[in-house]
């Protein structure tokens, strides 16, 4: 790959032939060097956006690196010595004979650029982030773009045989456990490495383009795609991205095995459009590494004896099962170890009394099986594992039992798994003898002994007995009440009212209010200062108990990045409260209908998030859920302005054999599907209708119904949108939205999707799975009919 420097070097050399300042800025001459010092001395690019030099890292050593130099984070995108950091006083020199050499503080050669025997005349740090060595003909003899580490940038290309190797951890830049590679046969793959070696081991994502993939292109517009030799796009890795004029872009294979495309606003003004001044991910591969990474030999996404659940930004969240702890708390992906002595095989039946099984729903460790039994009960499965010294975990699902031995591999937690893991733990295995408890028991024994020897012992014992009876009865009664109000199969914290009163400072800071509840901001001081949102249901409402159970029952079973996370609840006396994670940027209504127009790209990312969340509720959740009240007020935005569906108070749960249900009208005017008013059985298609209205609002940045609009034809957004689409004038919906106008083809596509969603006939509406596929470009969008027509010949999705 050749790079022609003369295009920008020649005019500079003509206009400033003697200026050493300009030449040092544009050209790095032979004989120049840099020394690793704390001031990060570097050779910057002409614009100052990138720099080449020494970057100090966490352990006090230095990397010879390239980084984004205009942002506070100084994000490293390439390094020469990732596996061999150097100390202060080391230097890099472009020698008089054209060699680029890195020497440590003792003068020992650590790294050098391989120019295949050709002699460079100069070096340059370019504005696209590429560092090059070139000859007098401006031919590129070596460049950093051809030697990538874990990151690629716009204008960079990966050819067959190229690979990105993830760093080991966030702070350790050495080669890690994952590789992104374009194979010589044209297949693009994400694989684990045979760590500590960097060759491929188990692959967990593939483009399936063997025989046709030619190169991966990260173009100047910010799109990343796999191209065939005839320049046909085979796989689009980043469907919709914001402009490179307004955002810095990078794509990185991160230490957790996920390939992410990030953007960073170049201008603080973009903060008003919903962009935080930090790196924000806009695409991910794979979507769920916990489920997609399965190794025949290896521990999986989180290592042996651990399990993986999907967290924010598709990041794997590694945890240890009960009775296990991390091998290395600073490297949770190494896996977990047992904290107790395993069962003795010589006396397995007697030793079984020393163990118990802890249940964890929707958890499994594939490939650790050594026994499989069908048509058995859970009790049979439990006893079989307890009395088997080899059994570390039993999985019970749909009348089947799997026995598993350690080390457990490929652990994952996800609502789509179903069943439960029964984890064998030694009784009190994690607890050392509690000296304070023993001391208390000893003291109690002494006091009782003394009292028994006194004349008042009988009276004291009677009083003590009465106290214990009242205490135990009251405690048991309270516990019984709490247990009766929980929902089967859900692991949530049950709070007391006084705990939540303290957490919210007596419900001081109100952050939201609805028809039947008020939401307050709180702080769980006993839980590492976790910030929460406490939803206090109206005590005057007779159905608040029902709403509490509905919301707990619906969202308590879910686990998805586009749904708000329920932490726990309170059902004490007349008090009905729900405790959620705190979502920092409020609801979509405030964001969408405020004074400033959010960016087109961010609006569409929000639409994608809502669609994925609904697809999960309808088809991927263990219990199918119809939300029944999708509207901007019920979509919350986290610190990255990603969508989180909230407020499941009106949700309807369907049994496994149900596809529809009969129920009273639910939802909010303007977003309610027509079948609600016709006393027809409702299906998940009512959520599709509401999403269609919401999608139009996201596209146009205005409410569905605005009576103050002068033109009656524009008063109802759904009607006006179809009229504009039918007339071929979708641009009228944009109203001075220049960013959207530059993407008018996608605007038209999204309007078409919305029109399909708001069809009056539910059978014509697509499923949320198909909506998601259409939004992402995986499925073509056909011409939609008039939403109010019933043309059966069109066919249903």
TrEMBL record:
Record's signal peptide: 1-20
Superkingdom in the source lineage: Eukaryota
Enzyme Commission code(s) on record: 2.7.11.1
Subcellular location: Membrane
Pfam families per the UniProt record, alphabetical: B_lectin, Pkinase
Catalytic activity: L-seryl-[protein] + ATP = O-phospho-L-seryl-[protein] + ADP + H(+); L-threonyl-[protein] + ATP = O-phospho-L-threonyl-[protein] + ADP + H(+)
Entries under InterPro entries matching the protein: Bulb-type_lectin_dom (IPR001480), Bulb-type_lectin_dom_sf (IPR036426), G-type_lectin_kinases/EP1-like (IPR051343), Kinase-like_dom_sf (IPR011009), Prot_kinase_dom (IPR000719), Protein_kinase_ATP_BS (IPR017441), Ser/Thr_kinase_AS (IPR008271), SRK-like_kinase (IPR024171)
Transmembrane segments: 443-473
Alphabetical list of Gene3D superfamilies matching this protein: Bulb-type lectin domain, Phosphorylase Kinase, domain 1, Transferase(Phosphotransferase) domain 1
Membrane topology, from the record: Single-pass membrane protein
Family annotation (CDD domains): B_lectin (cd00028), PAN_AP_plant (cd01098), STKc_IRAK (cd14066)
Positions bound to ATP: 535
Keywords annotated in UniProt: ATP-binding, Disulfide bond, EGF-like domain, Glycoprotein, Kinase, Membrane, Nucleotide-binding, Receptor, Serine/threonine-protein kinase, Signal, Transferase, Transmembrane, Transmembrane helix
Keyword Glycoprotein attached: yes
Boundaries of every Bulb-type lectin domain copy: 28-146
Record domain Protein kinase: where: 505-779
Family stated for the protein in its record: Belongs to the protein kinase superfamily. Ser/Thr protein kinase family.
PANTHER family assigned to the protein according to its UniProt record, in alphabetical order: G-TYPE LECTIN S-RECEPTOR-LIKE SERINE/THREONINE-PROTEIN KINASE SD2-5 (PTHR47976), G-TYPE LECTIN S-RECEPTOR-LIKE SERINE_THREONINE-PROTEIN KINASE LECRK1 (PTHR47976:SF108)
Stated name of the protein: Receptor-like serine/threonine-protein kinase
Organism in which the protein naturally occurs: Hevea brasiliensis
């Amino acid at each position: 790959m050749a790079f022609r420097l003369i295009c920008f070097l020649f005019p500079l050399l003509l206009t400033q032939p003697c200026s050493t300042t300009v030449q040092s800025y544009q050209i790095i001459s032979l004989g120049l060097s840099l020394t690793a010092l704390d001031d990060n001395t570097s050779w910057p690019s002409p614009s100052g956006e990138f720099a080449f030099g020494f970057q100090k890292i966490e352990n006090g050593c230095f990397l010879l690196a390239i980084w984004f130099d205009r942002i506070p984070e100084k994000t490293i995108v390439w390094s020469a010595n990732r596996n061999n950091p150097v100390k202060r006083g080391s230097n890099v020199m472009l020698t008089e004979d054209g060699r680029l050499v890195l020497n440590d503080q003792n003068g020992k050669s650590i790294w050098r650029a391989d120019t295949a025997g050709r002699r460079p005349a100069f070096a340059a740090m370019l504005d696209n982030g590429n560092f090059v060595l070139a000859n007098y003909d401006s031919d590129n003899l070596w460049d950093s773009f051809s030697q990538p580490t874990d990151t690629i940038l716009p204008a960079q290309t990966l050819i067959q045989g190229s690979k990105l190797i993830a760093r080991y951890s966030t702070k350790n830049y050495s080669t890690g456990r994952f590789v992104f590679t374009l194979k010589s046969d044209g297949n693009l793959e994400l694989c684990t490495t045979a760590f500590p070696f960097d060759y491929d081991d188990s692959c967990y994502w593939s483009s399936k383009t063997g025989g046709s993939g030619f190169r991966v292109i990260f173009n100047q517009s910010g799109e990343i795609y796999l191209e065939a030799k005839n320049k046909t796009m085979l796989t689009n890795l980043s469907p919709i991205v914001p402009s490179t004029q307004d955002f810095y872009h990078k794509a990185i294979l991160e230490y957790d095995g996920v390939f992410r495309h990030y953007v960073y606003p170049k201008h603080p003004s973009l903060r008003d459009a919903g962009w935080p001044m930090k790196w924000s991910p806009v695409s991910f591969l794979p979507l769920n590494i916990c489920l997609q990474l399965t190794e025949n030999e290896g521990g999986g996404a989180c290592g042996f004896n651990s399990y993986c659940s999907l967290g924010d930004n598709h990041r794997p969240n590694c945890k240890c099962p009960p009775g296990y702890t991390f091998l290395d708390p600073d490297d949770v992906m190494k896996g977990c170890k047992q904290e107790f002595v395993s069962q003795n095989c010589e006396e397995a039946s007697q030793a079984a009394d020393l163990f118990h099984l802890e249940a964890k729903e929707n958890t499994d460790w594939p490939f650790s099986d050594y026994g499989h039994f069908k048509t058995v009960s859970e009790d049979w499965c439990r006893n079989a594992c307890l009395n088997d010294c080899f059994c570390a975990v039993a999985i019970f699902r749909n009348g089947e039992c799997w026995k598993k031995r350690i080390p457990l591999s490929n652990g994952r937690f996800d609502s789509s798994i179903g069943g439960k893991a029964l984890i064998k733990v030694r009784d009190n295995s994690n607890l050392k003898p509690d000296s304070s408890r023993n001391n208390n028991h000893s003291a109690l024994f002494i006091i009782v002994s003394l009292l028994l020897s006194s004349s008042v012992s009988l009276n004291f014992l009677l009083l003590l007995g009465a106290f214990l009876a009242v205490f135990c009865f009251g405690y048991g009664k309270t516990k019984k009440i709490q247990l009766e109000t929980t929902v089967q199969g859900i692991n949530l914290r049950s709070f007391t009212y006084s705990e939540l009163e303290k957490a919210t400072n007596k419900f001081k800071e109100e952050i939201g209010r609805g028809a039947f509840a008020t939401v307050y901001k709180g702080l769980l001081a006993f839980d590492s200062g976790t910030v929460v949102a406490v939803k206090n249901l109206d005590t005057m409402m007779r159905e608040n108990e029902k709403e509490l159970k509905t919301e707990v029952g619906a969202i308590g079973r879910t686990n998805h990045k586009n749904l708000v996370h329920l932490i726990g609840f309170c059902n004490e006396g007349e008090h009905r409260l729900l405790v959620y994670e705190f979502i920092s940027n409020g609801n979509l209504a405030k964001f969408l209908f405020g004074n400033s127009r959010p960016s087109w790209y961010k609006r569409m990312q929000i639409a994608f998030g809502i669609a994925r969340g609904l697809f999960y509720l309808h088809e991927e959740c263990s219990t199918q859920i119809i939300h029944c009240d999708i509207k901007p007020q019920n979509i919350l935005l986290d610190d990255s302005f990603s969508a989180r569906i909230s407020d499941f108070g009106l949700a309807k749960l369907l049994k496994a054999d149900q596809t529809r249900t009969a129920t009273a009208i639910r939802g909010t005017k303007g977003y309610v599907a027509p079948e609600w008013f016709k006393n027809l059985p409702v299906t998940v298609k009512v959520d599709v209708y509401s999403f269609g209205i919401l999608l139009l609002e996201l596209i146009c940045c205005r409410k569905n119904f605005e009576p103050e609009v002068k033109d009656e034809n524009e008063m109802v957004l759904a009607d006006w949108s179809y009229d504009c689409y039918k007339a071929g004038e979708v641009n009228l919906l944009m109203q001075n939205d220049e960013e959207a106008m530059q993407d008018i083809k996608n605007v038209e596509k999204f309007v078409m999707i919305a029109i399909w969603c708001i069809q009056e006939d539910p059978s014509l509406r697509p499923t949320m799975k198909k909506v998601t596929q259409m939004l992402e470009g995986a499925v073509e969008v056909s011409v939609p009919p008039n939403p109010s027509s019933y043309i059966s010949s069109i066919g249903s999705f």
